[in-house]
Amino acid sequence: MTKKLHYLDPSETLEDLQEFYFPPYITLAHMFHAPEEWSLKPRVLKQYQLQYVVEGYAEYVIGGIRYHTSKGDLLFQGPGEAHYVNTVPGKPYVCVSIVFHFGSAEFPLQDLLAFGRSEAETPHDMGNYSDHSLENRLSELVHYYRQPGTLAKVRCQQLLMGILLALSEARRSNEAASAVKESSGSAKLVLIRNYIDSRLRSGFRHEELERLTGWSRNYVITQFKQAFGMSPLQYLVWIRLEKAKGLALQSGMSFSEIASEVGYSDIHAFGKMFKRKTGMNLSQFVATLYRDTPDR
């Protein structure tokens, strides 16, 4: 019987985590499709856990606090917190579970995630990230966790720390976009972003953004990059990539249909873009993502 590392005390897992050379140590990362009427009996983990709802609905209870979770909801729990899960008859439940620890290293994770602030009544609720880039990062983490070799494990660690950092920033700012709206200039940047979002398939020209804002092309690019970390064109490629990943995982659409849906008439150009940005083709991204057996 395979040892389930995510049930163990952190110090008991290190001997088996030969491809992880530094924390965070990830002992479980999988996508789970719950069978009909599945439930998880009360248990206590000695490690941290992130639980993300990819599809469906479930009742999750942590430390006596009840959470009714649906698509996009992300929960976080710390070591020693009793929890259990109940699904709803007739409703699906697909989730991503990430269990990890920092070994003997001291890491102020609860401080990073801003526990004890305005979310005190629901300390485990990290928010809803449906159609957010974080959803795709979780899926990528699962993908790389199933791959052999040190490089894949380092990618997992990089993705996990990026996820935790994104959660920290969202908890402290109540989403970066709400902070951006505080000034009229920032409101224009949000307008640009929304405009690009609405033209995912058709694309845009910089002249359109100039008319939209009254700014010059160079000023649009400079301000947008300063606010969002990428140029408007890079942002368009990014949202197309994230949309393609979501369609590949959940829609059952063909490769050519996905390419068309995200604005690529040339399937080869789409394939080159996807591989350049992710290091794998679309089939490879999906192929090893799912875990077939339930974790009880």
Blueprint (SSEs and pairs):
Blueprint: H1 10-13, E1 25-33, E2 39-44, E3 48-62, E4 65-70, E5 73-77, E6 82-87, E7 93-101, H2 109-112, E8 125-128, H3 133-145, H4 150-173, H5 176-180, H6 184-198, H7 206-213, H8 217-228, H9 232-250, H10 255-261, H11 267-278, H12 282-287, E9 290-291
Parallel strand pairs: 1-9
Antiparallel strand pairs: 1-7, 2-6, 3-4, 3-5, 3-6, 3-7, 5-8
Helix pairs in contact: 3-4, 6-8, 6-9
Keywords: Activator, DNA-binding, Transcription, Transcription regulation
GO molecular function: DNA-binding transcription factor activity; sequence-specific DNA binding
Protein name: AraC family transcriptional regulator
CATH architecture call of the largest domain: Sandwich
CATH class of the largest domain: Mainly Beta
- Helix and strand string, N-terminal first? HEEEEEEEHEHHHHHHHHHHE
Question: Residue-averaged pLDDT, rounded?
Answer: 84
Global outline: globular
Using only C-alpha atoms, the radius of gyration works out to 21 Å
Give the biggest beta sheet: 9 strands, mixed
Report the CATH topology name of the largest domain. Answer: Jelly Rolls
Q: Which class best fits the helix and strand makeup? A: alpha+beta
- Unreliable parts: 116-120, 175-182
Total helical segments:
12
Number of strands: 9
Look at the structure and name the CATH superfamily of the largest domain.
Regulatory protein AraC
Q: What's the helical proportion of residues?
A: 40-55%
Number of domains: 2
Query: Percent of residues in beta strands?
Result: 15-25%
The CA-CA distance between the termini, in Å, is 14 Å
Keywords: Activator, DNA-binding, Transcription, Transcription regulation
GO molecular function: DNA-binding transcription factor activity; sequence-specific DNA binding
Organism: Cohnella herbarum
Pfam family, one: HTH_18
